[in-house]
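Retro notes, item 3 of 5
We never archived the inputs for the guanosine-5'-diphosphate complex last cycle. Fixing that now. Sequence and ligand:
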Amino acid sequence: MTTVSDTLPDPAELASSVAEGKRPALATALNLLDDRRPEARKIAARYLALLAGKRQATRSHLIGITGPPGAGKSSLTSALIPIWRNRGLRVGILAVDPSSPISGGALLGDRLRMKTSFDDEGVFIRSLAGRGEQGGLSAEVWPMCLSMLATFDITVIETVGVGQSEIDIAKMSDTTCFVAQPGSGDSIQFLKAGIMEIPHILVVNKEDMGAAARKTLMDIRAATGREYSGEEWSVPVLSVSSTQGSGIEELAAQLDLHHDWLATRNLIEPRRRQFQAEWILKRLRQEFGSFGVAQLQTQLQTAHSGLDRLIGEGDSPFEQYESLRARLLTAWNRD
Ligand SMILES: Nc1nc2c(ncn2[C@@H]2O[C@H](COP(=O)(O)OP(=O)(O)O)[C@@H](O)[C@H]2O)c(=O)[nH]1
Ligand SMILES: [Mg+2]
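Structure as it came back at the time:
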């Protein structure tokens, strides 16, 4: 008879193989992180802790590409891949697209097959569309990103959304890139109203559509010109065509510039620690509610935003979560 643990991977072996960039190992790791069985959670925590110690000296740029369905996020991602591959960079893509369970991931796969070598070891694509319920999936996107960051120079997360999305990409990515659909005023309204988290790069795709694309570009430039004055990073608004390949080099250059902007200010690691803290906080809130989390904070005598101080560099998010959870349960049992 097979028991659960027979089917689970060895965490040390898995961490080594993922760090070496072996694609089947990465696929196994992402499945493990999605596995809710308690035995699997333990192995996943161990795996993440071991992986943290193996982080490679990659460029390690986590890029979030977001925007409404059909704006061309997948097309844009596949147009960027050859540029990165030509520079010798390894690229991982995580497509989280609950709105189009099959077409999103399938389309990306098809396009990539056309443009890059089928068995290019330097590209890894995983679609989370249609797997389990959305809330469950979104919870594990951060640990999945950590796995991808350990081995790829560039990791792209593609999500649908304009700020209220289940998966808040801006709370995960080094660089957030918003793709607007020509002729749709929604994104501009969201920007103006402050509903949408301010992206680092704004892209109007489908410039081959002509007038509609030019109008959207001008509207967004007008809407953001005021918004960002005084900001240190000035948000570029770019016009591209994913299908014709125009403007893609410029987009790749702006993505690089933003990464360098963060890196020269030593902002990448602290931001990621903050994202990890927020991920843990969100999970604790799901389990214990806001009241429980407030109690935990009182007990730890730390301000809401100070929770990130509890999270050391390179710690496994699952282990951190479990240790905070244990403290909370202890406090409750004592009261
Ligand atoms: N005309 C034109 N169509 C595009 C362009 N980029 C994407 N599309 C089309 O827009 C549709 C949606 O693209 P997709 O990449 O799946 O969008 P996503 O839902 O944001 O990932 C597809 O039919 C694409 O062929 C572009 O630059 N120009
Ligand atoms: Mg898509």
